[in-house]
Amino acid sequence: MSLKTPVIVLNVKSYEESMGERGLALALACEEVTAETGVVTAICPQMVDLAWIARQVKVPVFSQNTDIYEPGSCTGWTVAEAVKEAGAIGTLLNHSEHRLRLDVIEHVISKNKGLGLVSIVCTNNTPVTRAAAALGPEMVAIEPPELIGSGISVSKAQPEIVEDAVSAVKKINPGVKVLCGAGISTGEDVKAALALGAEGVLLASGVVKAANPKAALLDLAGGI
Predict the structure, then answer these.
(1) Residue 1 domain flag
(2) What is the pTM of this model?
(3) Residue 95 is among the residues annotated as catalytic for this protein
(4) Domain range spanning residue 21?
């Protein structure tokens, strides 16, 4: 399984605006924007809605995390096999709100490969990006934590972080694609990220909390 780029990946987190029917509405907005613009959009629903949403939309769906365990006696954890069974094409890993040890990330990436699932590993700086790229995920998403949800785009405020991440990944593993996250909210932010070498964006509140999420997505797609 692969994810075409450039891509807009929407992580809905656990916001009230993305629960249940509201989460489905966000996924359907992604589907409509992709149909209207040709720009690939993907969504990371709340975990309790993952299978329900994946069965109702045609856009790529990701889990917000996957744990290290095998199917069996592991109450409360999410195993990769269940993510695939739910209809997701992959998983987000190591978001700043859900940090993982490097050995856990490595294990989940390896397991995902065996199951045909895509791994997007979030990183917060160039050294971590370098380490993540060495593990061979399909994508890394560079997100300085201080800019997440700030409305201040890393691609504009700290462009050197994106440039350094892209350069580091190309040296370590050219097959890994780089996404830009943190503060992305407009088409201009997306355009700036792509100009720095990123192949897409990862965002949340800029769409989830927008008065008109579809309009926000259309604006983002306009930057591609």
Answers:
(1) no
(2) 0.94
(3) yes
(4) 7-221
